[in-house]
Amino acid sequence: MLSAEIASEIIKEGQSFCNKGSKGRNHDFTSRDIGIACGDAVYEKMNRNVSVDLEDPDVEIFVEIRQDKGYVFTGSEKGVGGLPLGTQGKMVALISGGIDSPVSAWLMMKRGCEIIPLYLNNEPFSDNTTRERAMACIEILQKWSPHKKFTVYEAPHGENLLAFLNNCDNRLNCVLCRRMMYRIAGEVLKIEDAHGIITGSSLGQVASQTSENMLAEMYGMEYPIYHPLIGLISLKLRIWQEK
Q1: Which of 59, 100, 164, 243 has the most CB atoms less than 10 A away?
Q2: Residues 6+ apart with CB under 8 A from 183
Q3: Helix, strand, coil share of the chain (percent; to 5)
């Protein structure tokens, strides 16, 4: 038995050990049965003075049964929690280079969404440092997706802003800007066969993020728009302070 082989290599003379078993639902034996069977095998395998201690052992051996396979390990590392990346489909994530958008993208990744980063380039209304910050944020997010390289999109948005300034009521610029961003993101969504759009909006944080404006920005859209930070401004401030 594999657990006994591993135990013989790691348990030293005079040490105590315990076996902890776990399993899925579709088995006619219990987790306790696993622990007992593996513990007996370990005890029989050892040719040195060892003891069983279920409360505070020197060495723990874990055996996990999933379907028709068994996994034996001697330790675990706590992760960030959530769901496996990719299990909840793909989302287009608007990344601006500030703290809001990458935190929103990461929270959705944590819930199992594969993200497709989209940067809207506002030149000449922004300089290259804004783009560099956005790309740096995307690089950090990429570290949380080691199994798959992001497909990163960048689209010009400066001419749209100029058209709004020259042809529209300036009080509506922010709403029109955001609505156009969603339209561009919607085209990326279609290309990538994604399921929604992620933003860093937080209700009431700035003038453009009132409930009325956010409704106008999304009105008539054919796809869902997700705002993970909608009521979590304190979370963003805490993350910013920690940085």
Answers
A1: 100
A2: none
A3: 45, 20, 40
Q: Euclidean distance between the first and final Cα of the chain, in Å?
A: 48
Cβ atoms of 225 and 91 closer than 8 Å: no
**Strand pairing report for 59-66 and 69-73:** antiparallel
pLDDT digits over 47-71, tens only? 678 888 888 988 888 888 888 888 8
Nearby residues of 28 by Cβ (< 8 Å), 6 or more positions away: none
pTM for the full model? 0.74
Other beta carbons within 10 angstroms of residue 211's beta carbon come to 10
- Report the distance separating Cα 15 and Cα 57, nearest Å: 8
Helices H / strands E in the chain, number of each: 8, 9
Q: Residue 58 to residues 19, 48, 49: CA-CA distances in angstroms?
A: 11, 15, 13
Residue 60: strand, helix, or coil: strand
CA 199-236-103 angle, 5° bins: 45
Extract the tokens encoding 107.
Answer: 């929270």
- pLDDT per residue as tens digits for the range 103-152: 999 999 999 999 999 999 999 988 889 999 999 999 999 999 998 999 99
Peptide bond into 124 cis (omega under 30): yes
State how far the Cα of 235 lies from the Cα of 175, in Å rounded to an integer. Answer: 25
Helices (H), the chain: 2-10, 31-45, 100-110, 128-142, 158-167, 173-192, 211-218, 233-242
